[in-house]
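Structure, all two chains, one model.
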Amino acid sequence: MDERVEVTLNINGEEYQLEIGKRWTLLYVLRDVLNMTGTKYGCGTGDCGVCKVLIDGEPVNSCTYLATRAQGKEIITIEGLSKDGRLTPVQQAFVETGAIQCGFCTPGMVITTTALLRRNPNPTREEIIAGLDNNLCRCTGYVKIIEAIELAARRMRGEA
Amino acid sequence: MSELKSLGKPTRRVDALEKVLGTGRYTHDLKIPGMLVAKVLRSPVPHAEIVKLDVTPALKVPGVVAAITSEDFVDHGNWGFPVKDDYMLAYKKVRYVGDPIAAVAAETEEAAEAGLQAIVLELKELPAVFDVHEALKPDAPILHEELAKAQAEETTSGELEDAEFIEVHGKGNLSETLIVRQGDPLSKLSECDVVLDAAYSVAHQEHAYLETEAALAVPTADGGVTVFVGDQNPFITLSNLVMTLGMPGKVRVVQSPHTGGAFGGKSDMVYETAAQAAMLAIKSGRPVKLVTSREESMIASYKRDAMEMRYRLGATKDGRLRAAKIECWADSGAYASMTPFTSWRATIHAMGPYHYEDCHVDMMCVYTNNGYSGAFRGFGNTEVTAASEQAIDELAEMCGMDPMDFRLKNCVELGDTLPFGQKLEYSVGLKQCLERVRKISDWDRKRAEYSRQPAHQEIRRGIGVASFFHGLSLGAEGLDFAEHTIRLGEGNKFEILTGLSDFGQGSRTVFSLIASEVLGFPVERFQWLPCDTDVVQECGPTVASRSTILGGNATRLAAMRLLTQLYDAAAMMMGCMVPEVRQEGEVFYGPAGQRVTLDELIAYARANHIPLSAKARWEMPRIHWSFAKGRGVPYVAYHFGAQVAEVEVDRRTGVTKVLNIYAVHDVGKVVFPQGIRGQIIGGISQGLGYALMERVEFEKGYIQNPNFDTYLIPTAADMPVVTVEFVESELPFGPFGAKNVAEPSMVPTAPAILNAIYHATGRRIRHLPANLERVLLGYDLKDTVTTTVCQVGVCERAKCEL
């Protein structure tokens, strides 16, 4: 049995004091301990990106990130992006452009996009595509996701 | 048709909001108090006899609550359709690496894992077979001895009506043979001016839905079980559970609100997952959740079948197709699953949508120890079209014709007869698709320009086309119907009850739009519900791109009945006669200026016990296909389409970049514009993966690439610019003229890309995927890496074989 440790995690602006296994991933803690199921499990190897969360503003695959390592850092999950059920510009653009089909990649895509547009508010199409290199989608063929990101970027720059 | 109000207008997906917020629940996300975690022990070898299996030691592991084997199920959990050759947990034998053998439920994942380790399993390995031709040899190891014996007896008793059919029957690992018969193509081929004789193959493809298979089983107070799943037909899951658990009337199947993709893959494997979880729940008396890991899913779940094909096509020298003789071998893997049906669809579509005088198609479904094969988007058509549309290109070149001209010369039109005797009576927009795609892709200019590239040029462009057809819905496979109810629910919204699942394709939105169109209310007035076998009527499986046609028509009819109820109630409320009632959107008017809103009308109906709930069943026109004669009407009508691919190939590295895909599809009528564009582009991405990178690599039955680090699917960087257009040929009995779209979208992509690569390089790659090595060298190093490390000499052999 995995050795237990006490950790304090800052998730979506709230502090959680938890006793967890030393080798538990952040994904496991989010989904199975805290029941925050918006962050998904897809591969367990950091290849598909459906488990992305923001750690200190950077998109990270939580399936290969040990929860203990997240101590002292700011963790934002899909549940923490919108306030009072109001969509962020990124979420709004995903809904409007039809970038969502089965929706299983959506939380990860939204997390990645949020970080991308913070870093680069005016990305070229090539930069958007490069930004999605660790997020798989099997339904949409990505085109509408790219369109959603372009729309969100325009709106966040106040151009649309 | 009068002008449409809702259909074809910009609309958002009705279930997008909770998906983007992360609040939408998938099966993976379900959690209830007291829930146990289940894990499955799977075969580590491709073929073996189970000598000893004892799960009692697992029960002694702390935290383990239940453990099961095939002994726990009725008739050992024997199931399967159309061939009952599979087991919910292996019985007597295992037939592929990943075959489920036993399952445990425990308090924690760690305990469940320890439970699996404690199970006593003794296997006696049997000789295995991994090649369809080897599997048909007389001395090949047999996967299903009892079935083979029964089949041999059936053949010798001479019960089958057609001698031609019997000829290929009854060989050990042959699970099924499907045929198409018209005339005598071999004689005709000898008369043809131009004859092509070429072999093609396609590889196993993984669905790669991002949500792996899962089930949550909850024991009920009456000793039964409720199972939550994300599947493609809750009623098939239900009937399999009832049969193998042996508890009629006590099983309920509920679909989770959302399912993370399916593409044909959320059937058989999910039925097994559901049965394993359900049996563990019954044995433990506790809720049990079973979620497969990605590796487990990729190893254990069924694939698109690999197929080998020999095409002999003949034409006149001026490019008129005359004869086709096509032989195919489908690798069914360890179980039949849907392979007999995918293979049937493959035989129908193997010749493509063209005129022929004579043709024969023979399709052998062969058991091997390579995993197992089943349904996947395109359902056999994707496989054969990858070959046939290359063969058509090759033949066009032999005739000295432009591939577009060749297709236009031979393609079927309304009123024409398909090679197996079916007259095309409805909705044939193929010629328009070809003409349109020729124009929007700037075909003639690019084709001429790329043909003039100097021989020494290393980075080369090419442009290729593929056209195709795809039969609507199930066809002559079986009874084809759907029954929907639209009923008044909370918040004065109308709930659309359906047994058809929405795992991302958008059927919920399509049904809402159709109900909106008929009733004249905004889309927001309608509410979707997940399928629940205690609530909805059976609608048949959510497969074969049938939801829009079947469910759309059932919705349309139910909405019309509901409208009648509303008019009756409005007349009663306003004190007038029904024909005097006039409606504008959500307001009803009487002859003397009376005015009631829908909400007022609903309040009146509730107060006066007037039900506002209507159901309707819609059935496809019945047709007949003679499986023994290989003739008849396989599908009532067809989707048609053509795609053009434009590629850039670096001859020094083998890297192929798809620059553009132009897709024109005859969909009958566009219902949900955003959704249909998503279906087409999504299908193209799967077709692009199929063409260039996707192959489940079986090495003596072991999958070498069981996760996304080694099994590559297209990323955003792989996608070309996609231009999508539609031809609306209006199917008379489609809802508002609509046809199918989901499966067809990927069918022509791979051959269009392969034809473009040939145009760019002059090198024909007849074996998919056209990965770097095949594009660079003309063969794949991995083809020979079976037991030894690849050496130069071995690679030379591969070159000869290819």
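Chain B touches chain A through 57 residues (CB under 8 Å).
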